[in-house]
Structure formats: C-alpha cells, structure tokens
Write a structure and sequence with these properties.
mainly beta; 3-stranded antiparallel beta sheet; 73 residues; 5 strands
C-alpha cells in the first residue's frame, strides 16, 4: 500500500502511503498503476467504483486517481 521513490543508486528518497489500506490522503486501497510525467509529478491509480464501490453499503464513488507534485532529490 505504498509507493517508493528511489534515486539512481537505489536509495529510498521517500515513501507515499500508509501501512494499512484506506481512503485517507495517505492511504491506498487497491493501487494498480503509477505514472510519472515530464515534470516529475506522480500519479497513482486505484480500482474504480465498478470494482469496489458497488460492494459498499450503500454503494458510493471511490477515489481512483491521485496526484503528487515532484519530490526533490
């Protein structure tokens, strides 16, 4: 449930996410894709409502895309 950011030598610069799943700003439920744009901004995609939200009681929308600004390092 975390995204690790490493330098070219394999050293950890930063980790994004908490140890446990959830919907708080520092948590992921089912992370399935991570991308970095040309500015170094990080995008994280999770499963959508179709896969998760419909099983909630009551059914609801789920967070499915998040963005973080470039991490220095």
């Amino acid at each position: 449930h975390k995204i690790g950011i490493y330098d070219r030598d394999g050293n950890v610069i930063q980790k994004i996410g908490a140890s446990l799943p959830g919907e708080a700003p520092d948590q992921f439920n089912w992370l399935h894709s991570v991308a970095v744009d040309s500015k170094g901004d990080i995008y994280a995609a999770e499963v959508s409502y179709v896969e998760v939200g419909r099983h909630q009681d009551p059914p609801r929308e789920m967070v499915s895309l998040r963005k973080w600004a470039r991490v220095s390092g």
